[in-house]
Amino acid sequence: MSGLAIPQTSAAAELRNAGGKSPQEVREMFARVARRYDFLNHLLSLGLDIRWRKVAAREISGLKKETVADLCTGTGDLALALKRSAPEARVIALDFTPEMVAYGPKKAARAKLSGLVFGIGDTLNLPLKDGSCAAASVAFGIRNVGDLDRGLREMARVVRPGGKVLVLEFTKPQGHFFGPLYMFYLKNVLPLVASCIAWVAGDAYRYLPKSIQAFAGPEEMSERMKAAGLVEIRAVPLTFGTVHLYVGVKAKPLTNSTSTF
Ligand SMILES: C[S@@+](CC[C@H](N)C(=O)[O-])C[C@H]1O[C@@H](n2cnc3c(N)ncnc32)[C@H](O)[C@@H]1O
Fold first, then answer.
1. How does pLDDT run across 4-14, given as a tens digit for each residue?
2. Which domains are present in the chain?
3. What tens digit of pLDDT does each residue of 195-216 get?
């Protein structure tokens, strides 16, 4: 793994995420599925995950030589998409599961992308200075973090005034027909297919619907982003509302003239 290697972890053992898992359990779960993570992701989302990340990455297109932090980066797919969207930007990609983040540098090298740094970092205790980034992003990660509000505050902290916080996350779709049908797929089909491909993935894909059901919907997420000090919040539904892209801008002090992009 290249670049940062900062062994920061959430010390608080009492932390639990929306799916009821502790940080240690989350780390162990992703360590077990790391090898199959990309394959299962693309297969079970029918390739839509690639498009969702592209939509998120478009939010920073046009960014010049500034830093973007991709948190809970996993195997680095959003980090790569961000780099493609803003080739001049420096992307710092952090995750607290070494087995996941280990794939990032290999994928960046294969894609011939430079200017990305992968490392170990806890989203609840980021090894980044206040206001050091033009944007901070997280794709399908914040639901797994042990304290949503603290995670959002950390993201807002490292972003400079006028910069963006981007959150891509699953949502429970509304609607009397599509909602239950989708939840049936998530609860029954997904874990079955996943465990047929890799037995160790069964647990992760049983946890997925549980955590999606318990996680904040668009209105609540928007409120919580606002509480974290963000303004101009947008919740953009993707693929029938099964996923939302949340965008918030770090509020500028009245005297500050730094730009939004
Ligand atoms: C579902 S994966 C998402 C990976 C990637 N962002 C993507 O789009 O595929 C969730 C990731 O969040 C990481 N994670 C969960 N809690 C974390 C925390 N507190 N700090 C850093 N990483 C965390 C896990 O290790 C895992 O790699």
1. 444 444 455 58
2. 23-250 (3.40.50.150)
3. 777 666 677 888 888 899 899 9
pLDDT < 70 regions, the chain: 1-13, 198-201, 255-261
CA dihedral (104, 72, 170, 115) positive or negative:
negative
H, E, C per residue of the chain: CCCCCCCCCCCCCCCCCCCCCCHHHHHHHHHHHHHHHHHHHHHHCCCHHHHHHHHHHHCCCCCCCCEEEEECCCCCHHHHHHHHHCCCCEEEEEECCHHHHCHHHHHHHHCCCCCEEEEECECCECCCCCCCEEEEEEECCHHHCCCHHHHHHHHHHHEEEEEEEEEEEECCCCCCCHHHHHHHHHHHHHHHHHHHHCCCHHHHHHHHHHHHHHCCCHHHHHHHHHHCCEEEEEEEEECCCCEEEEEEEECCCCCCCCCCC
> What pLDDT does 146 receive?
94
pLDDT at 207: 86
Which residue's CA is the closest to the ligand 1 atom numbered 17? 145
**Rounded Cα distance, 209 and 172, in Å:** 9
Nearest CA to ligand 1 atom 4: 74
pLDDT in the model for residue 256: 58
Q: Residues lining ligand 1, judged by CB closer than 6 Å?
A: 10, 23, 26-27, 30, 41, 72-74, 77-78, 95-97, 100, 122-124, 139-141, 144-145
User: For residue 254, how far is its CA from the centre of ligand 1 (angstroms)?
Assistant: 35
pLDDT, residue 6, reads: 40
Distance 257 CA to ligand 1 centre (A): 34
